[in-house]
Design goal:
- This protein is α+β, with helices and mostly antiparallel strands.
- Helix content is about 20%, strand content about 25%.
- It contains 13 helices and 24 strands.
- The strands form five sheets. Strands 2, 3, 5, 17, 18, 21 and 22 form a seven-stranded mixed β-sheet that branches.
- Strand 9 and strand 10 form a beta hairpin.
- Helix 2 runs parallel beside helix 3, helix 8 packs parallel to helix 9 and helix 9 runs parallel beside helix 10.
- The protein starts with 7 loop residues before the first helix and ends in a 5-residue tail after the last helix.
- The N terminus is likely disordered.
């Protein structure tokens, strides 16, 4: 089922959140597949590289990967004593076979993976990727919608934004194929393939329908662009509602360029005396732990230097690597009275760390709005084989909050003291008070009653409520699985649904 919506594509979402050790050589990550943030993490033993290709045969790379797992893997008891790599035609397939037992135990849902050093560094340092610049979600009735469009991307420049439906895809106007025809059962790989490789210059013809019902055909060419982690259109603002003011932040991904806009947003809240805030992480698959720690610091104006934000714990024989982060208030920090965290099935890793980290301090004044989160309380370190441009993201540590709670492999719903169910209504822009999740967040902050989120009624790995609830929603409110290819790139791991 690796190509199915509920298989590898969504499991890769978990790899999206990386901790500081997840983001770069020797750093760790806490995401569902690629969160990387430069934090103190073990540096792998250098390997001799006399020539650019030394040690880079398939067998050498496979053996190297197995050796790293045996040394660092958080679940060593699940690894086979030995496994012949000969039948496996790629390093990735061999890694998947080595981690199969942990995956069956719901501990490592493809969170351990191989990626490119160059690609990952480019993403975490600048948000750089190539694509249309949209996030795509697929409904249970095989309708493909844009759930978000990114500034600087070619799709938004072509008039494609949140709520646009992609009806058909082709390489030219004469070979357009309907989205529903590209999907076979639960296998969406043909749909991902139809959108083309993530390389600048790749063009596709799209038949689209706008929120007003107008249909048109446009040609969009993928370009290299830098993803803004906090949207310049709606990413940070103050919402006036019911005679009160509330802060709103939508963080798309935990990468280094997020630091300054986050500081700017919290300074604005502080200057305006705002202590009730909405943090929208509904699509955020994770990223660098260092950025997650910054968010904790920005919400810790009233915390003591000894108050713990998160514990990072390695396996017993690597306990010397264990660490914790305590709150370090900054000039921009606020002392939040109440926080509404908007989340869903695409909310993983570093995003879950941030939500979980506030519960011991705010209790029922930290609420989950939307649906259940993905469930990734573990993080990756980065182990590099530089001659081969191989970065091995290995699940090596667990994350817990100050109360030592961190076993949320099935999502955070049952760990929250307050929550409110809400759908993701793409007929309104993110952060619009009329959008259902934002509306429920405001209602929660205002003390209004709501229906709690439950694990069973929350999101699956696909993102959105269970299929049984979908028939009760309009098309724009339907649960949408964030579309993810079988072998996602680093940006696609960290930004679920990115194309």
């Amino acid at each position: 089922m690796r190509n199915s919506r509920f298989g590898r594509g969504l499991s890769a979402i978990a790899a999206l959140a990386m901790v500081s050790s997840c983001g770069g050589g020797g750093t760790g990550s806490i995401g569902s597949g690629g969160d990387g943030t430069p934090t103190p993490t073990p540096t792998p033993t250098p390997t001799a590289t006399p020539t650019p290709t030394a040690g880079c045969t398939l067998r050498e790379r496979q053996d190297w990967a197995f050796a790293q797992l045996k040394e660092w893997y958080l679940f060593p008891d699940t690894l086979p004593a030995s496994l012949d790599p000969t039948p496996y035609t790629s390093v990735e397939d061999y890694i998947d076979a080595l981690t199969a037992t942990a995956r069956a135990q719901h501990k490592d849902r493809y969170f351990t993976y191989l990626t490119s050093i160059a690609e990952e560094d480019a993403y975490y340092n600048s948000g750089s990727s190539a694509g249309f610049g949209v996030r795509l979600g697929l409904t249970s009735t095989n309708r493909l919608f844009v759930t978000e469009a990114f500034e600087g991307g070619p799709a938004l420049a072509a008039g494609i934004d949140r709520g646009t439906e992609i009806v058909a895809i082709g390489t030219n106007s004469s070979n357009l194929r309907n989205v529903s025809d590209l999907i076979s059962g639960s296998d969406t790989s043909a749909l991902s393939n139809a959108l083309g490789p993530d390389t600048a210059g790749t063009s596709r013809v799209l038949r689209i329908t706008s929120l007003t019902g107008a249909t048109s055909t446009v040609t969009v060419t993928k370009t290299q662009f830098a993803l803004d982690p906090v949207s310049s259109r709606y990413g940070a603002k103050i919402i006036s509602d019911g005679g009160q003011q509330f802060g709103y932040i939508n963080l798309r991904t935990f990468i280094n360029p997020a630091e300054q806009p986050l500081k700017d947003a919290f300074l604005r809240f502080r200057t305006n005396g705002i202590t009730n805030i909405i943090i929208d992480l509904r699509y955020n698959g994770g990223g660098l732990i260092s950025v997650a720690d910054l968010m904790g610091d920005l919400m810790g104006a009233n915390r003591a230097p000894t108050d713990v934000w998160e514990y990072m714990t390695f396996r017993p024989e690597k306990s010397a690597q264990n660490s914790n982060h305590t709150f370090t208030p900054m000039s921009q920090s606020i002392a939040p009275t109440k926080i509404a965290f908007i989340g869903g099935g695409g909310t993983a890793s570093a995003s879950e760390l941030v939500i979980n980290g506030m519960v011991p301090y705010l209790h029922a004044n930290a609420g989950l709005i939307g649906s259940n989160t993905y469930g990734k309380p573990v993080g990756q370190i980065a182990l590099d084989k530089s001659a081969c441009d191989d970065r091995f993201r290995v699940i090596a540590f667990a994350i817990q909050n100050a109360a030592h709670n961190g076993a949320y492999y099935d999502g955070l719903a049952s760990f929250m003291e307050a929550s409110c169910q809400a759908s993701d209504d793409i007929s309104y822009q993110l952060g619009d008070p009329n959008e259902q999740s934002t509306r429920r967040a405001l209602d929660y902050l205002e003390g209004k009653s709501c229906t709690p989120v439950t694990a069973s009624a929350g999101t699956s790995a696909a993102g959105g409520p269970p299929h049984a609830a979908k028939a009760q929603l309009s098309v724009t409110e339907q649960a949408r699985e964030l579309l993810t290819p079988d072998r996602p790139s680093t940006p696609q791991r960290e930004v679920p649904g990115l194309f």
